[in-house]
């Protein structure tokens, strides 16, 4: 099923997560500008990862989730797209549902913090291969990739 890509600033993320727009400078000095999140996006004992990904179009047939921690995703230098689906429960046999899945566009400076239990794909480059960072609280939870109900999800420009 083909899904529309929604700019993260226009997406309803009430059930899915929170967005920080760090490209909107709050502080500045001689030759620099910066912004810091207003609260702690992810708790202590965090790890940071870096991913190189292919560009759209992609066919996503599986998603992952974390029941015990949030995960933050940050575009490094180019626009990226991620598929999200609401938490479906905490049973091992739960799965992401295509009918509830959305695809959001993140621009450099956007930080998406995915809530606990929310299904998410890897991120993919919007116009060309891209790189992104992710951060999570390390609780040694196993990562299980689960097939999308009525999937796969086709993400295209």
Helix and strand arrangement:
Blueprint: E1 2-3, E2 5-7, E3 17-21, E4 27-29, E5 32-34, E6 46-53, E7 58-60, E8 62-63, E9 71-75, E10 80-85, E11 102-106, E12 110-114, E13 119-125, E14 130-137, E15 146-147, E16 153-155
Parallel strand pairs: 1-16, 2-11
Antiparallel strand pairs: 3-12, 4-5, 6-14, 7-16, 8-15, 9-12, 9-14, 10-11, 10-13
State the CATH superfamily name.
Ureidoglycolate hydrolase
Structural class: mainly beta
| Uncertain residue ranges | none
Average per-residue pLDDT, rounded, comes to: 88
Radius of gyration, Cα only, in angstroms? 15 Å
Distance between the termini: 14 Å
Helix content: under 10%
CATH hierarchy class name: Mainly Beta
* Strand order within the widest beta sheet: 3-12-9-14-6
Shape: globular
CATH topology: Jelly Rolls
Could you tell me the strand content as a percent range?
Answer: 35-45%
Number of strands: 16
Keywords:
157 residues; mainly beta; Jelly Rolls; five-stranded antiparallel β-sheet; Ureidogly_lyase; lyase activity; purine metabolism; Ureidoglycolate lyase
Structural notes for this entry:
This protein has no helices and 16 strands. It has one domain (2-155): Ureidoglycolate hydrolase (Jelly Rolls, Sandwich). It has strands at residues 2-3, 5-7, 17-21, 27-29, 32-34, 46-53, 58-60, 62-63, 71-75, 80-85, 102-106, 110-114, 119-125, 130-137, 146-147, 153-155. With 157 residues, the chain is mainly beta. The mean pLDDT is 88.
Brief write-up:
The chain has strands at residues 2-3, 5-7, 17-21, 27-29, 32-34, 46-53, 58-60, 62-63, 71-75, 80-85, 102-106, 110-114, 119-125, 130-137, 146-147, 153-155.
């Amino acid at each position: 099923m083909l899904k529309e890509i929604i700019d993260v600033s226009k997406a309803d993320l009430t059930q899915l997560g929170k967005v920080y727009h760090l490209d909107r400078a709050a502080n500045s000095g001689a030759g620099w500008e910066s912004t810091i999140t207003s609260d702690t996006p992810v708790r202590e004992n965090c790890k940071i990862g870096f991913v190189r990904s292919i560009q759209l179009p992609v066919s996503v047939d599986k998603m992952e989730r974390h029941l015990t921690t949030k995960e933050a995703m940050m575009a490094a230098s180019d626009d990226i797209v991620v598929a999200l689906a609401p938490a479906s429960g905490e049973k091992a046999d739960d799965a992401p549902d295509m009918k509830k899945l959305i695809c959001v566009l993140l621009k450099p400076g956007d930080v998406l913090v995915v809530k606990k239990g929310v299904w998410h794909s890897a991120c993919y480059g919007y116009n060309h291969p891209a790189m992104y960072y992710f951060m999570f609280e390390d609780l040694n939870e196993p990562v299980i990739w689960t097939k999308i109900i009525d999937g796969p999800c086709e993400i295209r420009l």
